């Protein structure tokens, strides 16, 4: 209990010091500036797209890893965690190198990714999807397969049973997975910086705004954006807790 209290107190001191570093007026002036309003809007849009794409991928993959038994399952399970354990900068570098290959060039002829807004979404997605998959697998592990088995004995196909029985029961878990993916996308810095860049009024999102402010010594701007990200992250965390899902 004492260790837990000390850890939480340490975090409270850090957040308190950050919150009091700049005056409310300075924080407000930063947040309403044209550049930060653009970075905020872009972050909201890209995080939402990355989260939705993550859930679309996480639902079938999480279901597969929870319900199916197949050769090499342990290897696949470990491979799905690669984006979680890789250094973020390495993920960005891998994306950048991939799009220099012939296949990457062919993809970019259809949809440009490197140093574009689409690249921001992709950089966020490749990390966030791994967390969404972990969440959805936990959800499906928690749900009993018995109602689905009963539906199949009553004439449903495997797909129909999953669609009409299991997925409705997992809807709160989907919200939790989307929330985790969204929050992870919001804080993603390394892959976005390396793969999409940090161009003002183009590919600048909130984490890169903090980095740009710090790199030129504008600490008040970095603090203001950091506080905004803390508030957004706390809102997402509260939303997850309200669903009752464990992540």
How would you characterize this protein structure?
This protein has 247 residues and is an all-alpha fold. The protein has one domain: MetI-like fold, CATH 1.10.3720. It is built from 14 helices and no strands. The chain has helices at 2-19, 24-31, 34-67, 73-80, 82-85, 88-98, 102-110, 117-142, 146-153, 158-169, 171-187, 190-196, 206-215, 219-243. The radius of gyration is 21 Å and the shape is globular. It starts with a helix and ends with a helix. The model has no long low-confidence stretch (mean pLDDT 89).
Can you tell me the CATH topology?
MetI-like fold
Strand content bin: under 5%
Counted up, domains total 1
What's the name of the CATH homologous superfamily? MetI-like
Which value, in Å, is the CA radius of gyration?
21 Å
Main β-sheet, in a few words?
Answer: none
What's the number of extended β-strand segments? 0
Please describe the structure with a list of short key phrases separated by commas or semicolons:
MetI-like fold; mainly alpha; 247 residues
Give a summary of the structure in a few sentences:
With 247 residues, the chain is mainly α. The chain is built from 14 helices and no strands.
């Amino acid at each position: 209990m004492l260790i837990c209290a000390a850890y939480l107190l340490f975090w409270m001191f850090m957040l308190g010091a950050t919150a009091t570093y700049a005056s409310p007026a300075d924080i407000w002036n930063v947040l309403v500036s044209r550049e930060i309003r653009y970075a905020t809007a872009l972050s909201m849009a890209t995080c939402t797209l990355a989260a939705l794409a993550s859930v679309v991928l996480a639902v079938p993959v999480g279901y597969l890893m929870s319900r199916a038994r197949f050769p090499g399952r342990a290897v696949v399970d470990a491979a799905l965690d690669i984006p979680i354990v890789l250094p973020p900068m390495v993920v960005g570098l891998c994306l950048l190198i991939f799009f220099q290959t012939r296949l990457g060039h062919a993809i970019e002829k259809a949809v440009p990714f490197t140093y574009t807004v689409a690249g921001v979404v992709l950089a966020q997605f490749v990390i966030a999807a791994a967390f969404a998959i972990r969440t959805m697998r936990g959800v499906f592990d928690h749900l009993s397969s018995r109602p689905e088995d009963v539906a199949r004995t009553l004439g449903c196909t495997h797909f129909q049973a999953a669609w009409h029985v299991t997925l409705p029961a997992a809807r709160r878990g989907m919200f939790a997975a989307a929330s985790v993916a969204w929050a992870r996308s919001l804080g993603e810095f390394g892959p976005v910086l390396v793969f999409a860049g940090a161009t003002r009024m183009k590919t600048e999102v909130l984490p890169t705004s903090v980095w740009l402010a710090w790199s030129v010594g504008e600490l008040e701007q970095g603090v203001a954006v950091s506080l905004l990200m803390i508030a957004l992250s706390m809102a997402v965390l509260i939303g997850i807790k309200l669903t009752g899902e464990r992540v």
